[in-house]
Amino acid sequence: KLALPPESALPPAGGCGAVDILFVIDNSASMGQFQAALADAFPQFVDAMYANLPANISLHVGITTTDFYCTMPGAACCPSSCSIGNTGCQIGSTPEEVAQLQTYYNPPADGDNGVNGSQGRLFVHDDQPFFVSNTSDDPAALKTWFTGAAIAAGEQGSSIEMPVAAAAFAVDPVNAATNAGFVRDNDAILLIVFLTNDPDASLQPLADYEAMVLAAKQNCPECVLTAGLLRACVPDEKQRLWQFMTAFGDQPIWRDIEAKAEYAEVVGGALASALVEACENIPVG
């Protein structure tokens, strides 16, 4: 009869120990109704997530916005009166337009503009840049914090939205002053959820942004998930945001941002199920 190896010699079982959830929220004009709909749907996501994830999973939930420019309302593109429009679902399709867009892209390496939630910094709400919870906790406090923060993100950001850049810089060391500790590498899922109703105008090569995310998850690149409430043309035309969302393996969960009645289904059951499945299957160690 064969003897079993000692427990220490057995390969580690799969399963995550932590989940980090980043919401990239468009804070340009006209977004209030969508922010409110996301806030309304979020408690169902939390309930489904807590009910299905194992006990004692550490959770970090944070928000950043799509703005990389506005420091005061009323300036060009802050949040309106912008001369740069988009054709269909594309923006920055000509060299002239890219040069003009550059005016509205101030990455954090060029200096902190001091705006809450801008340039990939986490949005501070109730003195917290992100909310720390646990699946063994009462979820009420997380629900309250997020629903308040999602609406507080507001509509004063630039009408030149850069969600891809925001997601990347949110996990990059350049924003460590505000974001340090949010993303864990080992044994942790990183879920990035986008809420935006315009095409992405992020200007650096897409590979740069992908590399920033993978550098933050270098010990578990398969632990990155994406989801979104987007304009239907974003996946249809494989716009830059969709290219980013599909760069990490799994097919993103998404719905048309205009279908507010479906937010609970997407941000609730479907997204929680995908998160739970990913958490069960990632390698430990």
Which helices and strands, and how do they pair?
Blueprint: E1 18-25, H1 32-52, E2 58-65, H2 95-101, E3 130-134, H3 140-152, H4 163-170, H5 176-179, E4 188-195, H6 206-216, E5 224-230, H7 233-236, H8 240-245, E6 253-256, H9 263-281
Parallel strand pairs: 1-2, 1-4, 4-5, 5-6
Antiparallel strand pairs: 2-3
Shape: globular
Largest sheet: 6 strands, mixed
Structural class: alpha/beta
Order of helices and strands: EHEHEHHHEHEHHEH
N-to-C span: 31 Å
Helix content: 25-40%
Number of strands: 6
Describe the structure.
With 285 residues, this protein is of the alpha/beta class. It is 33% helix and 14% strand. The chain has nine helices and six strands; from the N terminus they run E-H-E-H-E-H-H-H-E-H-E-H-H-E-H. It has helices spanning 32-52, 95-101, 140-152, 163-170, 176-179, 206-216, 233-236, 240-245, 263-281, and strands at residues 18-25, 58-65, 130-134, 188-195, 224-230, 253-256. It has a six-stranded mixed sheet, with helices on both faces. Helix 6 (206-216) links the parallel strand 4 (188-195) and strand 5. Helix 1 (32-52) packs antiparallel against helix 3 (140-152). The longest helix is centred in the N-terminal third of the chain and has 21 residues, at 32-52. The chain starts with 17 loop residues before the first strand and ends with a helix. The relative contact order is 0.21. Mean pLDDT is 90; it is low at 1-13.
